[in-house]
């Protein structure tokens, strides 16, 4: 098999990846794909051989000189060899809802600062994790956007020339082939093939390229000293290809002379860390955007054909027809039975198409609002229904965040194992210590507890029906950001500050006037 062969899962997702990438990139990528998303109407094939010659005036009155013609026919995103289809493409409007949703979700995911505490051996990765100097937070932001857009992102651990480890990220389109094996009962990659572009010309100004491939395997062997004997062990190696030809012998990455037993690669999607190819959570919005685009094109074409009146002449020969018409031109017909009139549209199809497009746009908006955790625009929706939908939407985004953070932590564990030359992961935090690793915030929305629920919780606390731990836990679950970060930390702050209202477990029974004081401090009805 050739190095360019792809995994069956990759083949199955190839079109979906293309559509998701194009719709998230915007109108230029979609229109350059032409008939892939906007099929050519059959009628436009009839005159497919007609081309507007250079230096002529078109029907719209625009003058095409040599340079303008080249731009319109080759460089513009709506360029096409069939003039009628080119105009059809140009009139079509693509709704940019996919990229707006991705940016909105990514913004929510990175709104709060993540916690990042690394062992000293790999602490340098916190501020400079990638070859281009991205920090772990920057890498996390990019990964969330990719996991939302395509539904897959991959990280590889490599060694730089200065002897430090570096994380190399790959988009889903470049990871074309993979096989999975096992190492000490752990599922690891046994083969991975990454496709990239390689320059095909020595000309410094040329952008011609051919396919190149970066291959990782865990089938290389190396001799090491074990006690009193030399043994051979399996390690991972890399190899580069230009097109189908290998560019040299496999290379074994070494960190200060130490290899790694298997490819240190981690792949995640929108639902978890796995080498299996999942789906993007926004594929539904991408489908809606394409559907709106197609209907917008048909409606614009229908408007063009029906809203430009057509003059019809009856009862005369073709050579007797006038060569010009208009408000300042006199029209004389030779026969009294002759007739002249304009054809007017009588169909209500345009109104129907507009209604359908509005419905699809509303569906896309509601889809986005739901994922973003908004309240929607349905006035008849109950607060409980809104809350359930918000929690479900946030759970989807939380799943993406958790998946990406697990992927980052897995690659950080590989880095720690390589640096310490052991099979031990980053040490777990002892009591009172901060946990090791990268942990983004999962508090995505504002308080989702209604004022009535907050008051009921407070009354339960004051009536000794719940403990202060339960009270604070429920507030934290409801979206309240605790200054102490954890419930235990908040209780410690309360004990230290000794506020008048909460945190006085021993004083609750003694203060008989506390409930009266609270009643006086309640906001007026209707205020939040």
Question: Major beta sheet, specifics?
Answer: 5 strands, antiparallel
Physical arrangement of strands within the biggest beta sheet: 6-7-8-9-10
Distance between the termini: 67 Å
What is the β-strand count? 14
Count of helical regions: 13
Low-confidence blocks of residues: 52-61, 373-377, 388-395, 498-512
**Elements, N to C (H/E):** HHEEHHHEHEEEEEEEEHEEHHEHHHH
What is the 3D form? Answer: flat
Helix content: 25-40%
What structural class results from the helix and strand content? alpha+beta
Quick summary of this structure?
The protein is of the alpha+beta class and 528 residues long. It has helices spanning 8-25, 27-32, 66-75, 83-91, 97-109, 136-149, 283-306, 349-372, 383-420, 451-462, 468-477, 487-497, 514-521; strands at 56-57, 63-64, 115-117, 152-159, 165-171, 175-183, 186-199, 209-226, 229-242, 245-246, 265-269, 310-314, 339-343, 437-439.
Question: What descriptors fit this protein?
Answer:
single chain, 528 residues, alpha+beta, 3-stranded antiparallel β-sheet, 13 helices, 37% helix, flat
Outline the structure in words:
There is one protein chain. This protein has 528 residues and is α+β, with helices and mostly antiparallel strands. It contains 13 helices and 14 strands. The strands form 5 sheets. It has a 5-stranded antiparallel beta sheet, with no helix packed on it. Strands 5-4-11 form a 3-stranded antiparallel beta sheet. Strand 1 and strand 2 (63-64) form a beta hairpin. Helix 7 (283-306) runs antiparallel to helix 8 (349-372) and helix 11 crosses helix 12 (487-497). The chain is flat and about 105 Å long. Mean pLDDT is 78; it is low at 52-61, 373-377, 388-395 and 498-512.
